[in-house]
Amino acid sequence: MIPFSIKVLFFRFFQFLLKWSTKLLNFRTPELFSGPGSSLKLCEHIAAQGVQSLLIVTDAMLVKIGLLQPMQDRLKQLGVNFVVYDGVLPNPTIEQIETGLAMLRKEGCTAILAIGGGSSIDAAKVIAARAKNPHKIVHMAGLMRVIFKPMPLYAVPTTAGTGSEVTIAAVVSDPSTTRKFAIMDPKLVPIGAALDGALMTGLPPAITAATGMDALTHAVEAYISRNHTPATDREALEATRLIMQNLPTAVKDGQNIEARQNMALASFKAGVAFTTAGVGYVHAIAHNFGAYYHVPHGLANAIILPRVLDFSKPDCTPRLARLAEVSGLKKGNESEEQLADAFIAKVRALNAEFGIPTQVDKLRAQDIPEIADKALSEAHWFYAVPRYMDKPECESFIRGMLPQAA
Ligand SMILES: NC(=O)c1ccc[n+]([C@@H]2O[C@H](COP(=O)([O-])OP(=O)(O)OC[C@H]3O[C@@H](n4cnc5c(N)ncnc54)[C@H](O)[C@@H]3O)[C@@H](O)[C@H]2O)c1
Ligand SMILES: [Fe+2]
Predict the structure, then answer these.
(1) What residues of the chain score a pLDDT lower than 70?
(2) Nearest ligand by distance to the CA of 115
(3) 156 close to ligand 1 (CB < 6 Angstrom)
(4) Which of 30, 62, 110, 251 has its CA at a distance of 20 to 30 angstroms from the CA of residue 340?
């Protein structure tokens, strides 16, 4: 049996290789349209690219509340034919993606426009990849498994959280194996995107809060990652500053366009940061809470984030202190230790303000060993976390979130 301390050396070496490969790949970002009304500009851009037949991938709720109508009207005016696939649900499954793919083929679409939260954008990314690749979705799981360039994909996020419009990732649920896995490939980055805060004014406070905490988690996990770079640091710090300044307003006053637009920008920036620097234990565990208990992604992250920061603090105190500074928490001559504590306390205070619980209601003790296994195998190979935990530590960490542990 290899001691954990030796395994850690392997993980570190693998992540060192990852860091250099991401430097060499130099991920592209989508052609970006930003500001209230920019989703219509993106429609004009799509028409100007000569797209004749578009598959719109979205969820039924957004169709119901009429969010797509202005974009559909503009596409019609511009002579772009489209069909709408609205079968995506939160935490999209392989089956939902295959159904969308079947519609794309039946209708002969040549490009895809995702309109929605991370679930719709991720589903659209995988439909785009499947449209040009013969292999099954499960065989795309992991790093760089998409062989051929996907179908052209455009994205309009309607939540400010996942940053999926700029990331290399798509997260897919496989209910048959209780697994939620990530497909990570630079080919998945959409070629165009619009950050249109006006589409987010109807997002209910609880979803605004949870998705905003997802964006904060991306920024923080990227900033404390050992695979950070000067560029990811800039984006992560700016995202953190924007979130701290705008998320409470966006939750309280959903109609505040300025707060919505700033949150859309923050989510994008956090996406830019983590697509290169990676995330960490918060995401590795949250993916399993999503797969086992359908806990919304942002909510799971929000619950786990302060706990992971407590655990990681001994190995990233100066970085947490810098996050505190950009969050406006530095008042005088506090030590780095004090600032790091203030940042973690601020995350807890935001959760409390948003009514986010500290435990996971549906978590069952008997699932914990399996969840810990899955979370560690995701985190240890893919994420350059500042401080490692072994299996017993991880199990005890997760046990702290059992409802009766409150
Ligand atoms: N690809 C990535 O890089 C990445 C990163 C983080 C998370 N994810 C994945 O993204 C998914 C979560 O996405 P999400 O948090 O954006 O939520 P979501 O897409 O699942 O949407 C959540 C709910 O919000 C509703 N909604 C969305 N926009 C709305 C609006 N403007 N007005 C009213 N209601 C609206 C939806 O109908 C849905 O019911 C998860 O599967 C997660 O694993 C992906
Ligand atoms: Fe996330």
Answers:
(1) 23-24, 26, 405-406
(2) 1
(3) no
(4) 251
